[in-house]
Design goal:
Distance between the termini: 74 Å
Number of strands: 6
CATH topology of the largest domain: Alpha/beta knot
CATH superfamily of the largest domain: SPOUT methyltransferase, trefoil knot domain
CATH class of the largest domain: Alpha Beta
Strand order of the largest sheet: 4-6-3-5
Helix content: 40-55%
CATH architecture of the largest domain: 3-Layer(aba) Sandwich
Number of helices: 10
Number of domains: 2
Order of helices and strands: EHHEHEEHEHEHHHHH
Length: about 230
C-alpha cells in the first residue's frame, strides 16, 4: 500500500491485531499498521464511502459487470478525487462472500493464467495499488471535467435498501418471490445505477408514500368489512 501511495487501511474483524508478525512483514511501513482502523463489520468500514470496488477471483452467479484493474481504476481515480472510495478485499483463503460482494458497486478481477490463477492477497493489493497509482497520475485533465454530482454514501444506500425491503414486505410483493434472492437482484440493479444522494431521497420519499397509501387501503378495507358484518 505505502509503495503505491495508499495510506488508509481498514481491517474488519482481524484475528490478531496488533500482531508482531504483521509488524515484521510491514518492512518499514509500520505507520500504515499503526494508523489502521479496526471495524466490526463491512458496513462500519464503508461508512461515508460512495464507491466500493469488490475483488473477485472466480465466476459468480451475479449480473454485475466485472472489470479488469486497467478498466476500473481510471473510474475509481476520478471518483476518489472528490469523495471517499474503497477497495474491498476478502480473506486470503476464500475471498469475499456473495453477501460481502453485494456491498460493492463495481467488481474487479485481475486477469491471470486460467490454468494457474492463484494470487495471494498481498499480490492482489499490490496490483490494484499500482493500477490506481497509474490512473491517478494521468487523470488530472479528466478530473477537471467531472461534474460535481454527490453520489450516495454507503450508509445512505443501506438505509434505502432496508426501507425498500420493509416496504416490499408490507405491500405483499414477496408473496410469490424469494425475498433474499430478490433483494440481491435489486441490490445489483441499484449498484449499476450508482445512485446520487438526491436520488436516494427521492426514492425513499416514494417508498414512504407507498407505505402510507398501503396503510390507508388496509384501513379502508377493514372498515368496509366491519360495515358489511354489521
Amino acid at each position: 500500500m505505502k509503495v503505491m501511495g495508499l495510506h488508509h487501511l481498514y481491517l474488519i474483524n482481524p484475528r490478531h491485531f496488533p500482531d508482531p508478525h504483521a509488524s515484521a512483514m510491514a518492512a518499514g511501513a509500520d505507520d500504515i499498521l499503526e494508523n489502521a482502523v479496526l471495524c466490526g463489520s463491512i458496513d462500519e468500514a464503508l461508512q461515508g464511502v460512495v464507491l466500493t470496488v469488490g475483488m473477485t477471483a472466480r465466476a459468480r452467479d451475479i449480473s454485475n459487470e466485472v472489470k479488469s484493474p486497467r478498466e476500473a481504476m481510471p473510474l475509481v481515480s476520478q471518483q476518489a478525487a472528490l469523495l471517499p472510495v474503497a477497495l474491498l478485499f476478502g480473506t486470503e483463503m476464500s475471498g469475499l462472500t456473495n453477501e460481502e460482494v453485494s456491498r460493492a458497486q463495481m467488481l474487479v478481477n485481475i486477469p491471470s493464467n486460467p490454468d494457474f490463477s492463484s494470487l495471494n492477497l498481498a499480490a492482489a493489493v499490490q496490483v490494484m495499488g499500482y493500477e490506481l497509482s497509474v490512473a491517478m497520475q494521468g487523470d488530472s485533465a479528466v478530473q477537471r471535467q467531472i461534474q460535481p454530482a454527490q453520489p450516495a454514501a454507503h450508509e445512505q444506500v443501506e438505509g434505502f435498501m432496508a426501507q425498500l425491503e420493509k416496504t416490499l414486505l408490507e405491500i405483499g410483493f414477496f408473496t410469490t418471490q424469494n425475498p433474499a434472492r430478490m433483494m440481491q437482484r435489486l441490490r445489483r440493479l441499484y449498484a449499476r445505477a450508482r445512485l446520487e444522494a438526491d436520488e436516494i431521497n427521492i426514492l425513499r420519499g416514494i417508498l414512504s408514500v407507498t407505505t402510507e397509501y398501503n396503510a390507508r387501503l388496509k384501513s379502508r378495507y377493514q372498515q368496509d368489512n366491519n360495515v358489511q358484518e354489521h
